[in-house]
Specification:
heterodimer; A: alpha/beta; B: mainly alpha; two-stranded antiparallel ribbon; binds adenosine-5'-triphosphate; binds magnesium ion
Amino acid sequence: MLDVQNLLKVFHPNTVNQKVALGGVNLHLDEGDFVTVIGGNGAGKSTLLNCIAGVFGVEGGNILIDGVDVTKMSEHKRAKFVSRVFQDPMKGTAASMNIEDNLALASQRGKSHGLRWNVTKKDKEHFTELVKTLGLGLESRMSTKVALLSGGQRQALTLLMATLNKPKLLLLDEHTAALDPKTAEKVLALTRDITSRNNQTTVMITHNMKDAIEMGNKLIMMSEGKIIYTASGEEKRNLTVDDLLKKFREIGQQNDRILLS
Amino acid sequence: MVYLNALPGAIGQALIWGIMAIGLFISYKILDFADLTVDGSMVTGAGTCAVLLANDVPTGVAILVAFVAGMLCGLVTALLHTKMGIPPIMSGILTQLALWSVNLKIMGKATISLVGKQLLVARADVGTSIIILVAFVAVVIGILYWFFGTKLGCAIRATGCNEEMARAQGVNTNTTKVLALVISNGLVALAGALLCQYNGSADINMGRGAIVIGLAAVIIGSVIVSKISSNFAVQLIGAVVGSIVYYLVYQLVICLEWDTDLLKLLSAILVAVFLAVPHFKQKFNKSKFVLADLNCDNQSNGGENNA
Ligand SMILES: Nc1ncnc2c1ncn2[C@@H]1O[C@H](COP(=O)(O)OP(=O)(O)OP(=O)(O)O)[C@@H](O)[C@H]1O
Ligand SMILES: [Mg+2]
């Protein structure tokens, strides 16, 4: 499904600010795989996701989605295969548009934007049903501007939008980190529901070791632009938070954020 | 009394500037792009239309060509921004500067008189003109209401609201920006074409400060209608209402026989005041909207502070 081969990303190459953010990353995911990504600040996790999504070009290596080489494909074209939920709840939705319009835009992902009416009556019913599954009571506020929703509500909506027409690959970049614990729990449960229901191939970055262990069937740990540890199957199921913290200590990463969570 | 007599003429003019304001609404409000092309593209519209009318081309054709000419102006600014990476304000300024020369070449001289030509609207026939202009405005609003309700229109709205998100949803944001600026400047040129007929002449200087008047209309309008409805058509109507309010005030200043040298200063002050209104409203009014925003900000900061 996803093949990342020897990916190299350098910021500001050939300047004093040169920074190798990804130094040859290899990653293979099968259909339906759910991988959690952990690692200290600046390890290159977000950069990896952004490269896969096409936010910026890469200096070397290839990215294949379902056998298609997308390395040079523009971001908006790649959106046909890939969808994302950002860390910042403000980023995933268009604030001045209402819930319906946002969902309609998402349902058009990967298709051309023609002159058909954006939200038909049939769409309205369909979207209302979908929003009901979130269990947040938003179904009665379909024409409310998204700006008026709370961060958690917006993040849940973004997740719904991202999975609306079943992308080949779902990328989650600390999508619960900006939410209060209770809301985070809810959005995480929603993530689990939707991804398992759709057998959704997913990459999820998190700083929460417990979530990283409990969610998904694979786990990777990154440090200084490289994947330094991979666990799957039996090994992943048997992991404990202590195991992971020990791994971090081995590589000399005493990250407060990781120790705290 | 003098004021009342001058009102119909002012309203005709206001309706024309209302179309211009709708154009600005698209770039400034929907696309969130401070487009300074308009001071130039308005004259392009007026100049093109006037040259054609002076050569006895049918009025409808002249207006249509002016509209297309304005769209081309918008295209230039859009390409400067999207293809060459020039910031919005600079792209607009460059096009505006270039258009000064282009407009002079189109017109051949600084002023073209339209006396005795076949015109669609004219200050001399203000009653009929107002009816025609109201129809014009209604058609423009109708078409835009439909367009921005389509998938493509929604993609443009999303681009203006959250470009990053739009791209992540598969919107080619370069294309949507080009489209919005083309439509916007087409409308501005259309307003120019109508204005030169209404005034009976086109002048190379008629676009100077146009953006301020247009923005004034947009902002006054949004202050007025924001209480009534968030419906898109109402917002467009708001831009026209804003234009009318602006010209009612403007006409009053003229009738009071103040020093007309001060008119531009007054315009700037008027716009500054209305621009400041939403700012102060937000500052003092702890509405739900503001609170929701603050909450989210705090939360995301909190997330980073844990780092
Ligand atoms: N746009 C950019 N320009 C320059 N350097 C960048 C840019 N984005 C990231 N970097 C650098 O690349 C490295 C990897 O950053 P990245 O954001 O991928 O880390 P991360 O693993 O997501 O960290 P965090 O847990 O803090 O989110 C960092 O050293 C960062 O400073
Ligand atoms: Mg990150």
